[in-house]
Amino acid sequence: MSQVQIFIPCFVDQLYPETGMNMLRILEKLGCSVHYNPKQTCCGQPAYNAGYWEESKKVASKFLNDFDEDFYIVAPSGSCTGFVRSAFEEMFADGSEAHLSKKVRGYLYEFTEFLTEVLKVEDIGAHFEAKATYHDACGALRECGIKAGPRKLLQQVKGLELVEMAECETCCGFGGTFAIKFEPISIGMAQTKVQSALDIGAQYIISTDVSCMMHLQGYIDKNNLPIQTIHIADVLVKGMLE
Known about the structure:
The structure is a single chain. By secondary structure, this protein is α/β, with parallel strands linked by helices. Helices cover 50% and strands 14% of the residues. It folds into two domains: 3-118, no CATH class; 127-236, 3-Layer(aba) Sandwich (Rossmann fold), CATH 3.40.50. The protein contains 13 helices and eight strands. The two termini are 22 Å apart. The mean pLDDT is 95.
């Protein structure tokens, strides 16, 4: 039995709590012993991306000490996972927490990555009747190298027709403060992504990251478009627990 600690990122905690619960349900269904530290907060990415590096390091230091360094840490976010892996190495290169940072980075996995690379699972018995496409979120793809795993999982979902869109690897336009500082460009990027999905007749855009989903769903809702965003954990849980 795998001992698993879960990290619930800010957006999941505040806006998509059911996604976190569904990840938990799937991990337990697959035989994991799951633990959650209610004192956990943030990985430090928002402050870091905004240029507040010292403030970010304080939050990141807390993150390191919120988890047991000897057990897997699983998060429903390629963005947070990628940030910890890429930024923490430099952030804690020197000092007393360098060793702890290295150990924690080695035990941290994005959710789908943990399923396919650690548990070696692709078919978890999910059933979802829909036509969908997969969006490669920047953090998952570019910082974690996650590409094939989510698709392998989705290809095993009964009833799901998974079709690739032309802009699958293109950024959705969110990028944290980018969406605020460069709103017209951000909206244009969301339009490109959503239109690419509509062009192939997709009913859903599936992703590993709720930040992308939030941004794209905002554009979809504002323009009353016939498509929805959904996190991959929310797809994989469907029918699995019946």
